[in-house]
Amino acid sequence: xxxxxxxxxxxxxxxxxxxxxxxxxxxxxxxxxxxxxxxxxxxxxxxxxxxxxxxxxxxxxxxxxxxxxxxxxxxxxxxxxxxxxxxxxxxxxxxxxxxxxxxxxxxxxxxxxxxxxxxxxxxxxxxxxxxxxxxxxxxxxxxxxxxxxxxxxxxxxxxxxxxxxxxxxxxxxxxxxxxxxxxxxxxxxxxxxxxxxxxxxxxxxxxxxxxxxxxxxxxxxxxxxxxxxxxxxxxxxxxxxxxxxxxxxxx
Length: 251
Ligand SMILES: [Zn+2]
What we know:
Residues 144-210 form the HTH crp-type domain. It is built from ten helices and ten strands. The two termini are 28 Å apart. 41% of the residues lie in helices and 20% in strands. The chain folds into two domains: 4-140 and 234-248, Jelly Rolls, CATH 2.60.120.10; 145-227, Orthogonal Bundle (Arc Repressor Mutant, subunit A).
């Protein structure tokens, strides 16, 4: 496995010539809980290729409520659309699960998109994939119950994070689904009573993944949610990031 293949799936797909164009402009950052990576309505400062962890895209409503609209892991890229078109980001992006990532300044990314057809191809394919998932989620929100949707999101989070245990408050779960906290409380209690999950003080553990899958809606298939956790690429454990090819952030 080369160093590039251990980073982000999109970066791993680039031909060597295109990777060599991109590599000098990438720096490694740590995605941590805290301020939003991207603020809705503001220009994107950097485009982020997660190596691990999860970044959630959030729609901010006029009353200040925020609803999760998507999750991006090592198979995707954050902020690419707004950076490419040089427009304010329509949505916010926040870290859902910490992990390392490669970041490139938005203007530099835009320049390279004009040079590298391969970079354009992987980025546009990622945008297309997310568009398809957004359509699937719109149908999911309209047709499937809150319990089915929560089970789907937990399975997808498990796949992206590579862990059966997650820091996930009920407020956060309510935000993920766009439902009241009380709704989540009732569902989480029922799932715990049935031995599907274990939940305590904001830490949630999946106990029975098959039972969780059986309670999820069919949309889990679009997420590839039931992948086993055997792949080391999905591990939440800190990974050694190769120093040979990428500048480390000065911070
Ligand atoms: Zn669904």
